[in-house]
Structures are given as C-alpha cells and as structure tokens.
C-alpha cells in the first residue's frame, strides 16, 4: 500500500465521488469496492476538486470519533476551508461550514452547547410523545386513506417526523412543511442547498422572535431561557441542529423500515403471522442501511496515521457508518443477528453520540406500526427495483414508496 497523502492522491488518481456510495442500488458493493482498492480508509471526492478521507472501518471510525484531542468537529480546522479552496457558495456549506452549535464544536464549548439539547430532550415526556406521534400519524393517514393509494415517503414518512419535532418547538404545521422543503435541499447538498438553508433559518428566526414575545411550554422557550446559550446565533443554530438531525434521520429510518417490511418476506409475513416484526426491522435498518450513511466530518489537528494512511493536519474525514456497520472484520458471513444488537454505529460514538436516539426510536416505531396496521392489505404499487433514492452524499432515503391498499370508507 503506497503511503500517499490525500493531496497527492487527489492530484494523481481519479477519486470516487462520495455520492457513488449513496445513489447506487447496492451500497455495500460500493463500499467493498473502495475497501478492495484502498483498505479501510479511502480517498473520495466530496464535490469536484474537494477530496476527503472516507473511513470504512468500524475500528477506524471509533478511533476518530472518540479522540477529540486529535480529531476536531470544528470546520475551522479544515485545511481546504481555511485556505479558501472550498468556495463560499459550495453545496457542501450547509452540512460542513461552521455553525454556532454543539455539532461543530469541541471540548468545553461542545459540552456547553450540548447541555441545552440534553436538558430539552430530558423534558420530553415519553407518554405525551407517544400520543403526539400517534395523532400526527392518524392525521396524515386520514388525508389519503380514502384514496386506496399513497406515497409512504412524501405523504407520510417525510411529514410525520417534521410535525413531531416541530411540535416540540411550538412551530406550526404550515411552518413545519416549509422547514421540510428547506431541509430536503440542505441534506441534498445540491445546487439549492444554500437557499434551502437560508429559508430554514429564516423560519426558525421568526419562530424564536414569536416565542420571545409569547413564551410557551416548549423547547423554543426552553432554549431562549437556557443559561448556556449566550446569544441569538447559538439559540437558532441549536434549534437548527435539533430539528434537522431529528427530521432527516427519522424520515430515512421510517422509510427504510417500511420498505423492508413491504419487500422482504421475512418481515412482510409479520402482518400474516410471520416470524420477524417491527423491532427486528428497525434494528436491521440501523445495521445495514443506517439513516446517516456518511457523516461529516472530523478534521485532523495534527499529522497522524489511521490504518496505514498518512493523515495530514487539516484533512477532512467522513465517517462511513453504512460501511463500518458491515465491516467484514466485525461481521461474520454467517450466524450474525441484528435484532436487539445495539453495537452499531448508526448514532455515532464518543462525545458526539446522538442524544436523541431513544426519541427517534419512539417516533419511528409508532409511525411504522401505525401505517402497517391502519392501511389494510397495503402492498407496494411498483416493483422494488423501481424505488429510487433522494440525491444526497450523506443519506440513502427512498425518494418514494408508492403503495396500494383497501380504501377506508368515509
């Protein structure tokens, strides 16, 4: 294995775009192709001319994610960003440029900015959360139940999480739908990502001002009053983090779980007395097709080495959760069971482990269970091979799940 730096590899090799791992029909084949060529740390291209390391191994991700003294979450430590090599209008900006929240912070600052998120999540009553999710699911299903057909992504999986998460912050249903459009653009990292991000922040700024004038028993008011958030930039960016992370990952988890249960005989049989159920499907999705397939980013604070690759100070490292969960060094070819096994990296590891995995599971489980039980004889209306993916270098969410079912009588 040649010990070339990232810059040297980018200059002399045709690097694989990161999107090749998220827009293909078989992501594990794509990840394995990178492993075969490069090992467990592969050079990839985030967008033309912008290289990064993609960590493909379970142990390599744990190494980078746990050591914040050597690997930073602060994009100001990204060499290409600091040098101006990444243009200000880059489509990567909404996901990789600095923000005043916990996601993009390290050490004491990270702990200060994370505390309001942890405190806010602790305030959410699980029973009330369940009631809210069931109400949101029932409301959405009522809009299409009489038609006998629907898109379980656009009509359901992409709506229920936004209504649920926005409810935590006292944001209206109409504003929640506007936020959803902005988030789709933000996570897509396409040409509309910057405008989607601006629209998203404008809505949240208005909501924050409304709550400042009329406080309420919700998380927006809790963030406004939290002593750890010292200015409006930190408040709005903390809300951005909580809503965007909660929405995108949960939408993808619901959609992938519904796809699995509607297409895989092991799970499709559950409605007819089969052996595997919803919790099995949820766990399998987290292992095999996690909500965030590739997570940006860590930035090396000093020259070092990972799996024989020379990492230079300022290099960007992308955490390939979808690859690492299927790392052949930890996944034997036979005898492996995902059900009940929570040692996956779907929620990351280390100081930046997702704080809302419990709430996400409540939302996802109720949403999947409600759809499968309320829609009688529900089945895919297209062949499984026709299910496309929403374009993104980070996620692998089905773009649509067209289904047919017995219409509800009015």
Category by helix and strand content:
alpha+beta
The chain-level mean pLDDT equals: 90
Strand order of the largest sheet: 1-2-3-9-6-4
Looking at the overall shape, the CATH architecture is Orthogonal Bundle
> What is the straight-line distance between the termini?
66 Å
The rounded Rg comes to 21 Å
Low-pLDDT windows of residues: none
What is the percentage of strand-forming residues? 5-15%
Q: Any idea of the CATH class?
A: Mainly Alpha
| Main sheet overview | 6 strands, mixed
CATH topology: Cytochrome p450
Secondary-structure element string: HEHEEHEHHHHEHHHHHHHHEEEEHHEE
Number of helices, where a helix is a run of at least 4 consecutive DSSP H or I residues: 17
- The CATH H-level superfamily is Cytochrome P450
Shape: globular
Kindly give the count of domains.
1
Count of extended strands: 11
Q: Roughly what percent helix? A: 40-55%
What features would you describe in this structure?
Belongs to the cytochrome P450 family. The protein is of the alpha+beta class. The chain is 49% helix and 10% strand. It is built from 17 helices and 11 strands. Helix 7 packs parallel to helix 17, helix 10 (173-188) runs antiparallel to helix 11 (193-213) and helix 11 (193-213) packs across helix 13 (232-263). The protein has one domain (6-404): Orthogonal Bundle (Cytochrome p450), CATH 1.10.630. It is globular, with a radius of gyration of 21 Å.
């Amino acid at each position: 294995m040649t010990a070339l730096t990232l810059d040297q590899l980018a200059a002399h090799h045709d690097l694989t775009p990161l999107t090749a791992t998220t827009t293909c029909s078989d992501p594990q084949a794509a990840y394995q192709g990178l492993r075969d060529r490069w090992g467990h740390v592969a050079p990839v291209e985030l967008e033309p001319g912008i290289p990064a390391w993609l960590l493909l191994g379970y142990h390599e991700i744990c190494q980078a994610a746990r050591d914040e003294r050597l690997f930073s979450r602060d994009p100001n430590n990204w060499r290409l960003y600091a040098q101006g090599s990444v243009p200000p209008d880059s489509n990567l900006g909404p996901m990789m440029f600095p923000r005043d929240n916990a996601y993009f912070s390290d050490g004491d600052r990270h702990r200060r900015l994370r505390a309001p998120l942890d405190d806010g999540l602790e305030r959410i009553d699980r029973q009330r959360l369940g009631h809210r999710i069931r109400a949101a699911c029932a409301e959405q299903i009522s809009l299409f139940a009489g038609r006998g057909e629907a898109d379980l992504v656009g009509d359901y999986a992409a709506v229920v999480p936004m209504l649920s998460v926005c409810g935590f912050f006292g944001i209206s249903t109409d504003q929640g739908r506007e936020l959803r459009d902005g988030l789709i653009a933000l996570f897509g990292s396409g040409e509309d990502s910057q405008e989607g991000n601006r629209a998203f922040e404008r809505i949240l700024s208005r909501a924050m001002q409304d709550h400042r004038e009329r406080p309420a028993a919700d998380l927006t008011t809790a963030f406004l009053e939290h002593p750890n958030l010292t200015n409006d930039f930190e408040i709005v960016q903390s809300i951005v983090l909580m809503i965007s992370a909660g929405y995108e990952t949960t939408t993808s988890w619901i959609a992938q779980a519904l796809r699995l249960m509607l297409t895989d005989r092991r799970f499709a049989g559950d409605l007819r007395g089969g052996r595997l159920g919803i919790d099995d499907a949820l766990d399998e999705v987290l292992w095999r097709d996690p909500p965030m397939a590739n997570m940006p980013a860590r930035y090396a604070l000093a020259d070092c080495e990972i799996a024989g690759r020379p990492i230079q100070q300022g290099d960007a490292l992308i955490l390939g959760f979808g690859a690492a969960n299927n790392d052949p060094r930890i996944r034997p070819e036979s005898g492996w069971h995902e059900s009940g096994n929570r040692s996956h990296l779907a929620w990351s590891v280390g100081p930046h482990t997702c704080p809302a995995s419990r709430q996400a599971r409540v939302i996802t489980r109720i949403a999947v269970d409600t759809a499968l039980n309320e829609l009688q004889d529900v089945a895919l209306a297209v062949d499984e091979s026709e299910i496309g993916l929403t374009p993104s270098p980070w996620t692998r969410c089905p773009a649509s799940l067209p289904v047919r079912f017995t219409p509800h009588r009015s």
